[in-house]
Amino acid sequence: MATIPGLVLSHNNNHPDAVALRYKQLGIWNSYSWSDYLAEVTSSTNALKSLSIGKGSVVAVYGNNVPKLIFSISAIQALGGIVVPIHPESTSSELKKILSDSKTEILIAEDQQQVDTFLGIESECSVNKVIYLDGRGMATYKNENLNSFDDLIVKSNNASIENDINSINENDTAFYLFDEHEDSLYKVSHAAIINNSSKIITLNTLTEKDSIVSYLPLSIPTNLLFTFVTSLNSGMSLNLPESNQTIEKDIQEIGPTILYAPSFVFKHIITSIAYRIESANEANYNRYMNHYKSLMEIYNKEVSGESSLLDKIKKSWIMLTTFAPAKNVFGLTKIKHAFVSDGVLSKVNFDFFHAIGVEIQHSFGQAASCGCISVQPDHSVSSENAGKAMTGCEIKINDDSEVCFKTDCSAENLAGSNNSNDGWVNSGYVGKLDDVGNIVIDGRLEDMITLKSGKKFSPENIENLISCSPFVKAAVILGNNQDSVSAIVVIDPNSVNSWADRKNIRYTGYTELASKEEVKDLVKEHISCVNDSLESSLKVKRFVVLHRTLVMNEGEVSKTMVVMRKKIAINLKDVLTAIETNKDNCKVDDIDQLSYELDINKI
Amino acid sequence: MSDILKVENVTLQFGGVKAITDISFNVKEGEICAVIGPNGAGKSSMLNVINGVYLPQIGTVTYDGVERQSINPRDAAIAGMARTFQNIALFQGMNVLENIMTGRNLFMKSTWLEQGLNIGRAREEERVNRLAVEKVIKFLQIESIRKTPVSKLPYGLQKRVELGRALVAEPKILLLDEPMAGMNLEEKADMSCFILEINKEQGITTVMIEHDMGVVMDISDHVVVLDYGKKIGDGSPSEVMANQDVIDAYLGVSH
Q: pTM of this prediction?
């Protein structure tokens, strides 16, 4: 009975009073036991029945992780329907693509923002009913296809749904998952995604006593697997934050034992620490800097097995006075496993987390592999790889250095299969296998850069190195058909603000701050350090400090903050052209219809 | 719709200075009424007359069917009038939650002893009032700063907190004194949305003093224009815009 709603039913039968879900609402954590969970799923199922959702119906859930959306996933599937999770910040073109490719019939939207985005493209897709959870702001809307979920629930009965759940098959399609990079949908069955999560559970011995926070939308395939499915499968509690602005505080209050996050979240923690430290008083600033240095020295000794008793005592003192409180602020005190997907952490950041006892485990996966094919084991100390293939998975590297995999938990491309004849799937990523079979991901195949000299490289490694500085939010490496490598650098507003305040640098806003000579020097100094670790042909010779951050709504970064080069090449073509033609400065006509002057700096 | 507020022939003098001269206007139930005018036109004084801070020498204010020449501010609050101020009047040392909680003062019947010891009625009152405050915090989308001292907040957010404090009093009529002063474009758009929702979805009548003409013309149903303490215009936004006296007052007139 391994189906998503089947898992809810079996938890209800086995331990009805255990906590299944926690959700902060109106400032208070509310919990749902498994019996409450089933009751909510039952009422949602009966409400959706009235819309004649049946086997094979396609229903999109469009919003953040709020309990009603979580319950409606199981409710749709209990009726044999297929769930299409959509990111709440999806642009209208992306929404149109997902809705029309998946042939979605019914859309469950969280609130006015999502309904408005949908109404803009209503005529271009086949959706015939929209159900919203929060009707705020929509009192004057007269569209007949709009329905409130609460109204539907009030009108429906409360019949048992056990028979409905038992009649669905584990090989039925459970989800259509959208892969942003490939711009296509994947068909995922109940069995595939549940089995994949079972592998993660067994590998890391996760139990129902663990707890996990799901703060990113479930439209991100890796997040769906690691938080939603894994919590349902293992019986651990799933915790949902109050709003996107309170995530940090909410994680601190819950103190989860398992953390899943794309790499940008961990980078954000590093940046947050940096900006707090930059604005601390002189004594605290110096203490932190000294302790950080000592901690990393001791950690390096530990890794090489040379740490002495004195080191252990010193580390305990440093942890007690500095890093334990810092860990607590970010809710990391009880973390046993911290899974990272969508990119790897740079060595400096990876080592830092391991040194303070947060064991980062890189993983690799995408929609085509149901979210995961490999994950690093516990206590792994290498920041480069993403672990070995999990049981049932095989990984090989083809002649183009592309990573190919075979897995017993695969997902089928909805538009047509991208499998080659013998069941191997091309991942779209370039990588290699190390001596012991760990997979090392270099970047996306389409992003590979070839210099004029013929030297081919993946920009992501250099970008990772540049953005490991807390002052850098993102970096975009350029160099196709050029003599040398250049970088567009996006500074982090928070940490650079604090830094500028400390240095008494005056500015009015982000754009002016980014154009300050001192900031350029700060970036230059960092890139020079990065250059020291790069081979001579790959050294970054020129850089631009961008006058704004990259915008998710414009598609310049993915939902997991991965740089989307195609869109950047369009939006910032003036910068790219200036770099290609070796100019010293450029005028950018930007997406906000304004013009900006940017300097191209040499190193 | 009936008039919830009638201002009739009100004149207010401070010594020899006439702040308001013979002003009359009506506010219908459920509308957004904007009071506009150049600096020193008597707008804030008008609001202060309405909720009883100032006592007019001549004239009456009829609120909710009761005609009065004066009303005590506390009685005005009990009768369902809530207001915000031009210069933010929050308790700077307290956090957002506590500041908004003070707006629930009228709903607390327990004694200070019960409150201090958290016993008897005080416990239940705390729960009920906290819930009301949390609903307003959610409405105004300030969950992430509920425990932040207001002195650390930027100006735009402080204005929002002040609106929150007025809202938790569950008013029938809301008096807003320059809710958007000093805000940037984005903050103004947010604040306009909140005011519209308060008015359209919660049905609270709103009287608002505002300088930003774009906002006034966009969101109000009814505009009253004051100049040098006198009323020079009264009507729908389009009527007021076409009124020659109003144009003269704003753009100046050759003498």
A: 0.88
